[in-house]
Amino acid sequence: MVRAIVGANWGDEGKGKITDMLAKGSDIIIRFQGGSNAGHTIINDYGKFALHLLPSGVFYDHTTSVIGNGVALNIPYLVEEIQSLVERGVPKPHVLVSDRAQLLMPYHILFDTYEEARLAGKSFGSTKSGIAPFYSDKYAKIGIQVSELFDDAVIKEKVHRVCETKNILLEHLYHKPLLDEAELLETCRQYRDMVEPYVCDVSSYLHDALKEGKTILLEGQLGSLKDPDHGIYPMVTSSSTLAAYGAIGAGIPPYEIKDIITVVKAYSSAVGAGAFVSEIFGDEADELRRRGGDGGEFGATTGRPRRMGWFDAVASRYGCRIQGATEVAFTVVDVLGYLDEIPVCVGYEIDGKVSKDFPTTVKLEKAKPVLTTLPGWKCDIRKIRKYEDLPKNCRNYIEFIEKEIGVPITMVSNGPGRDDIIMR
Ligand code: GDP
Which of 13, 73, 155, 211 is the most buried (most CB within 10 A)? Predict the structure, then answer.
């Protein structure tokens, strides 16, 4: 049985926490897209962790953590992340890396940085982790697959081809130092030795695991609105953030994904540029940012302050639909406990017309929020464990949003810790 845990919004919905929690009853947890460009913050018995590449299920002894073929694999980063967990007392995780995953190389990071500088004010808000250059190379068929590291002739030829094209850009577009073929080949040899203990034919492994009835979690990174096809293109990431892509990025049949837990945040936050209809500014935003998440809404990878906004029912309903949400985990509800009244965006006004449909980006840029206001509950709800024990206004807020998004909210997260959860 496969369940996906994915985001309905712009990312940072709290998927890590939900994954860490559900991993307890699971056997295998898989990352199927993205790379180390976004982080998941997890707070559990071992402490507080910001994971970037490993799935959020690595904290249990009984789980296997898989880096699927769809991931942008930064090998030294992976090895360091495993090492840092062990140093902090977490049992050495059982990690498998797909032999079909491709390598995020140091030059991807360089190209990302150079391109951001070249675009200057017109950039896409990259985290400069090399993700866009990585996926560009993958689809341009000059990416390096893990399996290729183990064949000297193949890797030599690949490195030669990469240097040939990259050096033209480095010389004539960016005016930067060129790549050295011998050095790059040596890097590949080092990467081969580092990754070797983890390499696995992952889709075959998962095929057997499914036959044996194992419980598998797919952990998504970012959210629906950052999907390159269905999100706010071009202010998106470079790999699909949708549960459907889990089948491809892990190598399992799509019909095995039975449950799509879509994580929805009780207010909005986003990093990077792009239309953000329910965005708030000034003191109102500062206060929500300061109180948000666990210790403030700042990027787990970059430390950048996140942009803040009220809950956006238009974007979230669309985000759930495009994920194919079967249930919703509604997170960070506790954070809103300070507000007398809580504004919610229930429509977009575009060229004088109000709509509840999430438009394409060109129209989205023109959208103005249509807000409604719900009464706040004005208390701390963190320790509450039963839905009926929540204040009435808090239940009203949850039930109002459930109606707006049209998917059952089965979990309410009321704190960053593993146990801060209300099952409905
Ligand atoms: P992810 O990328 O979707 O895993 O989200 P992040 O981990 O980047 O961001 C979520 C942040 O919110 C983290 O700092 C979590 O510790 C925190 N968090 C998650 N769920 C809750 C919650 O219900 N309440 C509060 N206060 N914080 C939460």
Answer: 13
Q: How remote is the CA of residue 15 from the centroid of ligand 1, in Å? A: 7
* Predicted local distance difference test score (pLDDT) of residue 208: 98
Residue 169 tokens read as 């850009």
Catalytic residue at 151? no
Rg of the chain (C-alpha set)? 22
Amino acid found at 242: L
Which stretches of the chain score pLDDT less than 70? 125, 300-301
Helices 313-323 and 392-405, axial angle in degrees (round to 10): 60
Structure token pair of residue 126: 């990259």
Q: Whose CA is nearest to atom 12 of ligand 1?
A: 293
* pLDDT (0 to 100) of residue 274: 87
Across the beta sheet with 279-280, what order do the strands follow? 268-270, 307-309, 279-280
* Binding pocket residue ranges, ligand 1, CB within 6 Å: 7, 11-17, 38-41, 43, 293-294, 300, 331-332, 334-335, 413-416, 420
- Determine the Cα–Cα distance for residues 68 and 77; give it in Å rounded to an integer: 16
Instruction: Look at residues 27, 29, 24, 25 and name the one whose alpha carbon lies nearest to residue 5.
Output: 29
- Pair 260, 322: CB distance under 8 Å: no
Q: How far is the CA of 117 from the centre of ligand 1 (A)?
A: 31
> CA–CA distance from 337 to each of 295, 376, 412 (Å)?
15, 7, 14
Task: Tell me how far the alpha carbon of residue 5 is from its chain's centroid.
Answer: 10
User: For 229, which DSSP code?
Assistant: T
Residue 173, classed as helix, strand or coil, is helix
User: Which ligand 1 atom is at minimum distance from the Cα of 48?
Assistant: 16
One of 20, 27, 40, 52 is an active-site residue; which one? 40
- CA 111 to CA 174: how far, in whole Å? 9
CA 110 / ligand 1 centre spacing (Å):
30
Active site residue 40: yes
- Segments in 262-352 forming alpha helices (H): 282-291, 313-323
Q: Report the phi/psi class of residue 193: left, alpha or beta, with left for phi > 0 and alpha for psi in -120 to 50.
A: alpha
| Separation CA 52–CA 77 (nearest Å) | 9
- In the beta sheet, which residues pair with residue 344? 311, 372
User: Which backbone phi and psi does 29 adopt, to 5 degrees?
Assistant: -125, 130
